[in-house]
Amino acid sequence: MIQSEKVTIVSTLSGEEDVDTVSAYLWMAGKKILRRAYPFDDSVSEVPEKYEHLQIDAAVYLLNKRGAEGEQSHSENGISRTYESADLPQTMLNEISPVCGVAS
Predict the structure, then answer these.
(1) Amino acid 85: pLDDT
(2) Average confidence score pLDDT of the chain
């Protein structure tokens, strides 16, 4: 999937219309995925196709949390919010299988 398609999907799902903002959140989500998938290899710079859906989900998640980062609890008019962590939730990160190797 090309970057413009990802931007369109994230914009549609999040309601954020600024392309630069959406691109920045996609970049951050991609970096978080790459750090988890390739913990010992900094040379990988593109999110693998199998994690593109997760990159989109993570970008939308981060955009929707904007302004309430790290919130542990919030109740107002019968609505309660609690976040799993200030970063991506562990349930999202559990989808990523780290790649490791042995030096020869």
Answers:
(1) 64
(2) 88
Q: What's the pLDDT band for 86 if we cut at 50, 70, 90?
A: low
Q: What angle do CA 16, 87, 76 make, to 5 degrees?
A: 70
| Contact of 36 with 96, CB cutoff 8 Å | yes
- The string of pLDDT tens digits covering residues 48-82 is 999 999 999 999 999 988 766 556 677 778 877 77
Comparing C-alpha atoms, which of 67, 42, 63, 57 is closest to residue 95?
Answer: 57
- The end-to-end CA distance of the chain, in Å, is 34
Q: Specify which residues 47 forms β-bridges with.
A: none
CB-based burial label for 90 (10 Å; 0-12, 13-18, 19+)? exposed
Strands annotated E in the chain: 74-76, 79-81
Distances (CA, A) of 25 to 30, 99, 101: 8, 24, 30
